[in-house]
Amino acid sequence: MLVATGIVSPMQLETATTAIQAGFSGHFVVSTLHTNDAPSTVVRLRDMGIDAFKVASVLKGIVAQRLQRRLDGLGVLEELRAQMRSATLPVIMLTAQHGESEEKALDLGAQDYMTKPVQTRSLAARVRAVLRRINT
Question: Residue 105 needs a FRET pair 20 to 30 A away by CA distance; which of 12, 56, 77, 79 works?
Fold first, then answer.
């Protein structure tokens, strides 16, 4: 697990470097990095010393977890779709909610919807499927 704390430990940098190298060799890597928001992931990797071209070459997506009560996942999706710069951003909803939420999420433009607990292999397969769809 990679946890960002403001000070980069050698373990964090080693984990990030290993993940980047694995990405270059064609491996699908899932890792965690704690930041305040999803866009900060790229900034955090750059702050750790990972070259911008490496991040751009291997980073295929970011899974963001929303822990605030102010806005649920559907609210975040509505905000993403309302803004021009993120209107077409691929989204896979990961949620503990069952019922009508799946239909609403798909109607709002989510590419997929999964309920927790999520199996890593299933998530990886769905991410690959979404990437294939958006790259064709």
Answer: 56
